[in-house]
Protein backbone atom coordinates (compact mmCIF):
# COMPACT_ATOMS: atom_id res chain seq x y z
CA UNK A 1 0.00 0.00 0.00
CA UNK A 2 1.37 3.38 -0.98
CA UNK A 3 2.06 5.85 1.79
CA UNK A 4 1.35 9.56 1.85
CA UNK A 5 2.84 11.13 -1.25
CA UNK A 6 4.04 14.72 -1.33
CA UNK A 7 5.58 16.83 -4.03
CA UNK A 8 7.84 18.54 -4.64
CA UNK A 9 10.46 17.31 -2.18
CA UNK A 10 12.40 20.54 -2.34
CA UNK A 11 11.54 24.05 -3.43
CA UNK A 12 13.69 27.16 -3.53
CA UNK A 13 12.02 30.46 -4.29
CA UNK A 14 12.62 34.16 -3.80
CA UNK A 15 10.55 36.08 -1.32
CA UNK A 16 7.25 37.43 -2.59
CA UNK A 17 6.93 34.55 -5.05
CA UNK A 18 4.05 32.07 -4.82
CA UNK A 19 4.56 28.39 -4.05
CA UNK A 20 2.30 25.35 -3.88
CA UNK A 21 2.63 21.94 -2.28
CA UNK A 22 0.68 18.84 -3.18
CA UNK A 23 -0.33 15.87 -1.05
CA UNK A 24 -1.99 12.55 -1.87
CA UNK A 25 -3.05 10.74 1.32
CA UNK A 26 -3.22 7.02 1.95
CA UNK A 27 -6.23 5.54 0.21
CA UNK A 28 -9.27 5.49 2.44
CA UNK A 29 -7.93 8.03 4.94
CA UNK A 30 -10.57 10.69 5.38
CA UNK A 31 -8.52 12.97 7.62
CA UNK A 32 -5.69 15.00 6.17
CA UNK A 33 -3.34 17.36 7.95
CA UNK A 34 -0.83 19.97 6.87
CA UNK A 35 1.96 20.74 9.32
CA UNK A 36 4.93 23.07 9.30
CA UNK A 37 8.12 21.98 11.00
CA UNK A 38 10.94 24.38 11.75
CA UNK A 39 14.43 23.14 12.52
CA UNK A 40 14.66 21.70 16.03
CA UNK A 41 10.92 21.94 16.60
CA UNK A 42 8.00 19.56 16.45
CA UNK A 43 5.41 19.72 13.67
CA UNK A 44 2.85 22.50 14.11
CA UNK A 45 -0.62 22.04 12.69
CA UNK A 46 -1.67 24.41 9.93
CA UNK A 47 -4.95 22.85 8.84
CA UNK A 48 -6.95 19.66 9.27
CA UNK A 49 -9.48 18.29 6.81
CA UNK A 50 -12.23 15.78 7.38
CA UNK A 51 -13.02 14.69 3.84
CA UNK A 52 -13.28 17.96 1.92
CA UNK A 53 -14.14 20.12 4.92
CA UNK A 54 -11.50 22.18 6.71
CA UNK A 55 -12.45 21.55 10.35
CA UNK A 56 -9.48 23.26 11.99
CA UNK A 57 -7.65 26.08 10.24
CA UNK A 58 -7.11 28.22 13.33
CA UNK A 59 -3.31 28.16 12.93
CA UNK A 60 -3.28 28.86 9.20
CA UNK A 61 -2.00 32.39 8.41
CA UNK A 62 -4.91 33.20 6.16
CA UNK A 63 -3.47 36.42 4.78
CA UNK A 64 -0.97 34.45 2.73
CA UNK A 65 -1.75 30.75 3.11
CA UNK A 66 -4.58 28.87 1.49
CA UNK A 67 -5.45 25.21 1.17
CA UNK A 68 -7.96 23.07 -0.59
CA UNK A 69 -8.95 19.44 -0.69
CA UNK A 70 -11.17 18.92 -3.64
CA UNK A 71 -13.24 15.72 -3.69
CA UNK A 72 -11.85 14.82 -0.29
CA UNK A 73 -8.69 13.17 -1.61
CA UNK A 74 -5.69 15.19 -2.82
CA UNK A 75 -4.84 18.46 -1.17
CA UNK A 76 -2.87 21.55 -2.11
CA UNK A 77 -1.32 24.09 0.23
CA UNK A 78 -0.38 27.46 -1.24
CA UNK A 79 1.63 30.40 0.01
CA UNK A 80 1.34 33.74 -1.75
CA UNK A 81 3.45 35.75 -1.31
CA UNK A 82 6.18 33.78 0.45
CA UNK A 83 8.25 35.45 3.16
CA UNK A 84 11.70 34.59 4.49
CA UNK A 85 10.13 33.20 7.68
CA UNK A 86 8.18 30.63 5.69
CA UNK A 87 11.34 28.58 5.16
CA UNK A 88 10.55 25.24 6.80
CA UNK A 89 9.53 21.67 6.06
CA UNK A 90 5.87 21.30 5.16
CA UNK A 91 4.50 17.92 6.13
CA UNK A 92 1.30 16.28 5.06
CA UNK A 93 -0.21 13.49 7.15
CA UNK A 94 -3.31 11.37 6.86
CA UNK A 95 -5.29 9.31 9.31
CA UNK A 96 -7.98 6.67 9.05
CA UNK A 97 -9.53 8.31 12.11
CA UNK A 98 -8.92 5.51 14.59
CA UNK A 99 -7.20 6.94 17.67
CA UNK A 100 -5.98 9.79 15.45
CA UNK A 101 -2.94 7.81 14.39
CA UNK A 102 -1.23 9.85 11.70
CA UNK A 103 1.04 8.77 8.89
CA UNK A 104 3.37 11.35 7.41
CA UNK A 105 4.59 11.98 3.92
CA UNK A 106 8.21 12.72 3.14
CA UNK A 107 7.63 16.47 3.35
CA UNK A 108 8.54 19.44 1.20
CA UNK A 109 11.55 21.45 2.26
CA UNK A 110 10.96 25.10 1.34
CA UNK A 111 13.74 27.66 1.21
CA UNK A 112 12.75 31.29 0.69
CA UNK A 113 15.65 33.51 -0.35
CA UNK B 1 3.37 27.04 28.50
CA UNK B 2 4.17 24.36 25.98
CA UNK B 3 1.41 21.76 25.93
CA UNK B 4 3.74 18.82 25.38
CA UNK B 5 7.21 19.07 26.85
CA UNK B 6 10.30 17.04 26.17
CA UNK B 7 13.94 17.43 27.07
CA UNK B 8 15.68 18.33 23.81
CA UNK B 9 18.78 16.31 24.73
CA UNK B 10 20.93 14.98 23.29
CA UNK B 11 20.52 11.84 25.32
CA UNK B 12 23.58 9.65 24.86
CA UNK B 13 23.50 5.94 25.72
CA UNK B 14 25.95 3.15 24.93
CA UNK B 15 24.97 0.44 22.50
CA UNK B 16 23.00 -2.32 24.23
CA UNK B 17 21.77 -0.07 27.04
CA UNK B 18 18.21 1.02 27.79
CA UNK B 19 17.27 4.47 26.53
CA UNK B 20 14.55 6.25 28.50
CA UNK B 21 12.72 9.13 26.85
CA UNK B 22 10.26 11.23 28.80
CA UNK B 23 7.38 13.54 28.01
CA UNK B 24 4.87 15.55 30.04
CA UNK B 25 1.63 17.09 28.85
CA UNK B 26 -0.57 19.83 30.24
CA UNK B 27 -4.04 19.02 28.88
CA UNK B 28 -5.76 16.57 31.21
CA UNK B 29 -8.27 15.92 28.42
CA UNK B 30 -5.57 14.25 26.34
CA UNK B 31 -6.70 10.78 25.36
CA UNK B 32 -4.08 9.21 23.12
CA UNK B 33 -0.34 9.51 23.04
CA UNK B 34 2.16 8.80 20.31
CA UNK B 35 5.87 8.37 19.89
CA UNK B 36 7.36 9.17 16.51
CA UNK B 37 10.93 8.62 15.40
CA UNK B 38 12.43 11.18 13.05
CA UNK B 39 15.77 10.67 11.39
CA UNK B 40 17.62 13.78 10.31
CA UNK B 41 16.12 15.14 7.11
CA UNK B 42 13.30 12.62 7.16
CA UNK B 43 9.65 12.74 8.16
CA UNK B 44 8.23 11.41 11.46
CA UNK B 45 7.58 7.67 11.61
CA UNK B 46 5.11 6.22 14.12
CA UNK B 47 6.77 3.95 16.68
CA UNK B 48 4.16 3.46 19.37
CA UNK B 49 0.79 4.71 20.52
CA UNK B 50 -0.84 4.29 23.91
CA UNK B 51 -4.13 5.37 25.44
CA UNK B 52 -4.48 3.35 28.64
CA UNK B 53 -2.55 3.76 31.86
CA UNK B 54 0.28 1.31 32.20
CA UNK B 55 2.78 -0.22 29.84
CA UNK B 56 2.55 -1.25 26.21
CA UNK B 57 5.32 -3.31 24.68
CA UNK B 58 6.24 -3.81 21.04
CA UNK B 59 9.54 -5.55 20.42
CA UNK B 60 12.35 -3.50 21.93
CA UNK B 61 10.02 -0.58 22.61
CA UNK B 62 7.84 -0.01 25.69
CA UNK B 63 5.54 2.96 26.07
CA UNK B 64 4.42 3.92 29.56
CA UNK B 65 1.51 6.18 30.42
CA UNK B 66 0.60 7.72 33.77
CA UNK B 67 -2.42 9.98 33.34
CA UNK B 68 -2.48 11.04 36.99
CA UNK B 69 1.04 12.45 36.62
CA UNK B 70 0.45 13.50 32.99
CA UNK B 71 3.56 11.65 32.00
CA UNK B 72 4.45 9.47 29.02
CA UNK B 73 7.70 7.65 28.46
CA UNK B 74 9.36 5.48 25.85
CA UNK B 75 11.90 2.84 26.76
CA UNK B 76 14.16 1.37 24.10
CA UNK B 77 15.89 -1.82 25.18
CA UNK B 78 19.13 -3.07 23.66
CA UNK B 79 19.69 0.31 21.99
CA UNK B 80 21.32 0.18 18.57
CA UNK B 81 23.19 2.88 16.64
CA UNK B 82 20.30 2.78 14.16
CA UNK B 83 18.04 4.05 16.96
CA UNK B 84 19.91 7.36 16.87
CA UNK B 85 17.25 9.88 15.90
CA UNK B 86 14.93 12.51 17.33
CA UNK B 87 11.93 11.09 19.16
CA UNK B 88 8.75 13.16 19.10
CA UNK B 89 6.06 12.78 21.72
CA UNK B 90 2.53 13.77 20.74
CA UNK B 91 -0.79 13.97 22.56
CA UNK B 92 -4.31 13.94 21.17
CA UNK B 93 -6.79 16.18 22.96
CA UNK B 94 -10.38 15.06 22.64
CA UNK B 95 -11.60 18.49 23.68
CA UNK B 96 -9.67 20.33 21.01
CA UNK B 97 -9.67 17.41 18.55
CA UNK B 98 -6.04 18.15 17.97
CA UNK B 99 -2.69 16.37 18.14
CA UNK B 100 0.08 18.46 19.69
CA UNK B 101 3.72 17.54 19.26
CA UNK B 102 6.62 18.15 21.59
CA UNK B 103 9.91 19.53 20.29
CA UNK B 104 11.55 16.12 20.38
CA UNK B 105 14.45 14.49 22.21
CA UNK B 106 17.58 13.70 20.25
CA UNK B 107 18.93 10.24 21.07
CA UNK B 108 22.50 9.23 20.32
CA UNK B 109 23.46 5.57 20.69
CA UNK B 110 27.21 5.26 20.99
CA UNK B 111 28.75 2.08 19.47
Report on the structure:
The complex is a heterodimer of chains A (113) and B (111). Chain A has strands spanning 5-7, 10-13, 19-24, 31-37, 44-50, 53-56, 65-68, 75-79, 88-95, 103-104, 108-112. In chain A, a hairpin with a 6-residue loop joins β7 (65-68) and β8 (75-79). The termini of chain A are far apart. Chain A is mainly β. In chain A, the strands form 2 sheets. In chain A, strands 2, 4, 5, 6, 9, 10 and 11 form a 7-stranded mixed beta sheet that branches. In chain A, strands 1-3-8-7 form a 4-stranded antiparallel beta sheet, with no helix packed on it. The radius of gyration of chain A is 13 Å and the shape is globular. With 111 residues, chain B is an all-beta fold. Chain B has no helices and 11 strands. Chain B has strands spanning 4-5, 11-14, 19-25, 30-38, 45-50, 54-58, 61-66, 71-76, 85-93, 98-101, 105-110. In chain B, 36% of the residues are buried. Chain A binds chain B through residues 33, 40-45, 48, 55-56, 89, 91, 99-107, and chain B through 4, 8, 32, 34, 36, 42-46, 49, 51, 88, 90, 92, 97-104.
Order of helices and strands of chain B: EEEEEEEEEEE
Assembly state: heterodimer
Helix content of chain A: under 10%
Count of β-strands of chain A: 11
Cα separation of the termini of chain A:
37 Å
Which stretches of chain B of 5+ consecutive residues score pLDDT under 50? none
* Structural class by sheet pairing and helices of chain A: mainly beta
Low-confidence stretches of chain A: none
Number of helices of chain A: 0
Number of helices of chain B: 0
Q: Cα-atom Rg of chain A, whole angstroms? A: 13 Å
User: Pairing-aware structural class of the strands and helices of chain B?
Assistant: mainly beta
Shape of chain A: globular
Return Rg of chain B in Å. 13 Å
List the chains of the largest interface with their residue counts: A-B, 21 and 23 residues
Give the rounded overall mean pLDDT of chain B.
93
**What is the strand content of chain A?**
over 45%
Amino acid sequence: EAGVVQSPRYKIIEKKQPVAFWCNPISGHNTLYWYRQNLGQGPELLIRYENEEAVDDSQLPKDRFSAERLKGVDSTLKIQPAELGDSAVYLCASSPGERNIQYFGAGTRLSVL
Amino acid sequence: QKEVEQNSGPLSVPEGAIASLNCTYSDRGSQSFFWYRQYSGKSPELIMFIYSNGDKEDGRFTAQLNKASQYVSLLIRDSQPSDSATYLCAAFSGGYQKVTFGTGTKLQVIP
